[in-house]
Design a protein that fits this description.
It contains 2 helices and 7 strands; from the N terminus they run E-E-E-E-E-H-E-H-E. By secondary structure, it is an alpha+beta fold. Helix 2 links the parallel strand 6 and strand 7.
């Protein structure tokens, strides 16, 4: 998948990250959050270690085309039952 920044439409931008944060518009966030072009949902009460199928309900309600799921310092994959609702809603997961 090739991602290209759309400067004309995007308002919130991921501007950096580190071991303990992700920077949105140059402001560090140290908790789980949902980032949309025009909206931040912070905190998002979900941690990878405790993900349950219902944790993605707020994302499904926002109807994104794709979800980029940050899993920390190493790539991890959620259980299939956790992702089922996103997949059934036609939302891609990367």
């Amino acid at each position: 998948m090739k991602l290209i920044q759309d400067a004309a439409r995007a308002q919130h931008t991921i501007t950096g990250y580190g071991a303990d944060h992700v920077a949105i518009d140059k402001l560090p966030h140290r908790n789980s959050l949902i980032v949309l072009p025009t909206q931040l949902v912070s905190p998002w009460d979900a941690r990878f270690e405790h993900l349950e199928p219902g944790d993605f309900a707020p994302l499904i309600a926002l109807r994104p085309e794709v979800v980029l799921l940050g899993t920390g310092a190493r790539q991890r994959f959620p259980r299939p039952d956790v992702l089922r609702a996103l997949i059934e809603a036609g939302i891609g997961v990367e």
